[in-house]
Amino acid sequence: MKARRSFFRAFFELTLRIIFKVYFIACHRVRVQGLQNIPREFDKLIIVSNHASLLDGILLWTYLDIDLKILVNRGRARELLLRPFMQNRYTVQIDTLNPYSLKGIIEEVNRGTALLIFPEGRITKTGNLMKIYEGAGFVAYKTGASILPVHLENTYNTVFAKKHPGRRLFAPVTITIGTVRPALDLDRIQPHERKKEAAHVMYGMLCEMFYRAHYRESTLHAEFVRRCGERGRSILYKDATGAEVSHRRALMGALILGRRFASRGGRNIGVLLPNLCATALIIFGLLIHRKVPVMLNYSGGGTSLGHALEIADIRLVISSRAFMERIKMDPAVFEGRDVVYLEDLRAAIGLRDKLRGFLGAMFPGKLAKVLPGEPSEPAVVLFTSGSEGVPKGVCLSHENIITNIWQALSRIDIGQADYILNALPVFHSFGLTIGVFLPLFAGCRSFLYISPLHYRIVPEIAYEEGCTVLMGTNIFLNGYSRKAHPYDFYSMRYVFCGAEALSETVFERYARVFGIRVMSGYGATECAPIICMNSAIENKHGTVGKVLPGIEYRVEPVAGIDTKAGRVGRLFVKGGNVMMGYLKNEAANRKFLTEDGGWYDTGDIVDIDESGFVTIIGRLKRFSKISGEMVSLTAIEEALSGVFGPTKEIAVMAVADARKGEKLVLVTNSRDADLKRARDTLREKGLSDLTHPREMIYMKEMPKLGTGKPDYVKLKEMLANG
């Protein structure tokens, strides 16, 4: 009798799986990636997945083909319409209000039941991951079960998801199955923190699966053509001139502008323009015609710009007469090179060009194709800030940028309802990747503003446009907070700070005045640019968040700096987002590609805690050796931030000293600053006497880079020249 019941049950399940597969293939064109990763033999197994629709459990039961049970909420299981699907032998119910119900779940896993858990405990409302309940991680830790992570892509856009615009009856679905992970090892964590840490580990697995499921080899221009064709009239970019372009118009505009340069100027084309819709369209237009936009940094002056033109072999520059006048750029810098002005370009576009652009948008043909090897070819060239020397040309491939976009989107829930306000210049990697490229992949809008220094105007734009995401450096965010009305950021969901440390003054002001938590991130131009970031789900104040999925990292000890049992050292990273290399810099490329095996040396000293949160101690080049000990100049600057007034600036420099090797000099634009107050502040914050500046210099205007950061190279020269 028992054998007969087993036969009929197996027959019933096989029939049911066939019926479901017919439906899923016919209506959702389901694709499954990683079937080879499904374990056929296991002792204890927990399957974890994101949860975006009512279909998710049935999908995984159908395609994983494992004798599994699904963990369901007892309250939902009692609902009339859901009762037949949630009260049967294929489910295990949990009472989320009763912590003791976990005991039964643990016993179920220990008996050898493969358990499917949706750690979010609910269907997502954002399309991205929501918070992870600690119970799921606790069950995994207590049972010592292996974990099989899975990602369900696009079930959020089916009619079985929470109601939102864009749901479709026949939305395609992809199931990505990861590799089996070993049981959670949390012995290094304090017992009272293990439950929380288990949830963090599980969240990290799901983030990594999100990234791996979404990233596919492609090019920026192929994605631009495809996504613009799909999204039609929805707005992509807007700027301060009143220009507003939909996806459809953006594609037409890019094709029209790009065609003008298809046979001109060699492969590398210089772009010297402010944040405008036209700038974004020119970038994509060049990419469509297999040109490489070289984003020229106009903030460093003529010498740096001339150096960039030389090492990038630029014969043609696209600029604007009005912009050249505004930044007071000497045209002699471009001597021997062709310069095409935006004003002339617009005047030359006729009906024939528009017709060809329209037809090209309708029938893109080979322009939308990805050629073999093209994802690993150069997409853009950017230049480092030059804060510690001559700016280096960084060559980023399509793979680098697309990888970093999906890495970032695995942690932050930016979607179609969002509106990014980007005032960071597009020659800055943060401004280019997040302000221009990411909106295309996330399906959101981006407002491109011409200057981050307009402290009154940027908050006003945020208010008028109803922007939801703002990014900037600490200096720029401080400027906005001083000029903004408390209601200007009423619609803002996220404010991100990068490129420099977030000060306590700025963090507290945004929290107190605007009710917004500013989140820090960290990156480098060479990494396209984001390496770490805090998010709404995982956030630790004082850190720059956790390293993004798909990025390996290691910490190497530095002589003279306490390693704190391996936590502190020089950070090296490796991943698909790390650059191809530097332009015409054989020595640096040999070290990066050959000697270091593709590991990028960030040059930063970091502290990584047990949970993976990264704290930046400072750049190695900004450490000074005083009386035989290494002292972080950045740490001193952070400790003194805001001491002489919220708008006053400081920089700590090390100069030669006959007695101690080096001495510290405090440079500030505050006339009221005094050394005693600075030393007392450092002492109160627990810094040793070695960190106390010996001298103070008043400087009316501190030299700065285009990102707002201090220009330490110029500052050092000024101090050396007296």
Textual characterization of the structure:
35% of the residues lie in helices and 22% in strands. The protein is an alpha/beta fold. Among the domains are: 2-214, Glycerol-3-phosphate (1)-acyltransferase (3-Layer(aba) Sandwich); 452-516, Rossmann fold, CATH 3.40.50; 627-720, ANL, C-terminal domain (GMP Synthetase, Chain A, domain 3, 2-Layer Sandwich). The protein has a nine-stranded mixed sheet with strand order 9-8-17-16-18-19-20-21-22, with helices on both faces. Helix 6 packs across helix 7 (194-214) and helix 18 runs parallel beside helix 19 (504-514). The model has no long low-confidence stretch (mean pLDDT 86).
- The fraction of residues assigned to DSSP E strands is 15-25%
**Unreliable stretches:** none
Number of strands: 32
Sheet having the most strands: 9 strands, mixed
Q: Please give the share of residues in helix.
A: 25-40%
- Stated plainly, the CATH topology of the domain at 2-214 is called Glycerol-3-phosphate (1)-acyltransferase
Strand order of the largest sheet: 9-8-17-16-18-19-20-21-22
Task: Provide a count of the helices.
Answer: 23
CATH superfamily of the domain at 2-214: Glycerol-3-phosphate (1)-acyltransferase
Structural class, by secondary structure, is alpha/beta
Mean pLDDT: 86
CATH architecture of the domain at 2-214: 3-Layer(aba) Sandwich
CA-CA gap between termini: 98 Å
